[in-house]
Amino acid sequence: MNPSPSDLRERVRAFVRDELFPLEPAFLNAPLSEVGPRLDALRARVREMGLSTPSLPRAWGGLGLSLTEFASMSEELGRSPLGHYVFNCAAPDIGNMELLLHHGSQAQQARWLRPLVDGRIRSCFGMTEPEHAGSNPVMLSTTAVRDGDDYVINGHKWFASSAEGAALCVVMAVTDPGAAPHARASQIIVPTDAPGYRLVRNIPVMGHVGEQYFSHGELRFDNCRVPVGNRIGAEGAGFALAQERLGPGRIHHTMRWIGMAERAFDLMCERAARREIKPGQPLATRQAVQFMVADSRAEIHAARLMVLDAAAKIDREGPKAARHEISMIKFFVANVLQRVVDRAIQVHGGLGVTDDTVLSFFYRAERAARIYDGPDEVHRGVLARQALRPYGVEVEL
Ligand SMILES: Cc1cc2nc3c(=O)[nH]c(=O)nc-3n(C[C@H](O)[C@H](O)[C@H](O)COP(=O)(O)OP(=O)(O)OC[C@H]3O[C@@H](n4cnc5c(N)ncnc54)[C@H](O)[C@@H]3O)c2cc1C
Question: For the chain, which terminal residue's Cβ has fewer other Cβ atoms within 10 angstroms, N or C?
Answer without folding.
Answer: N
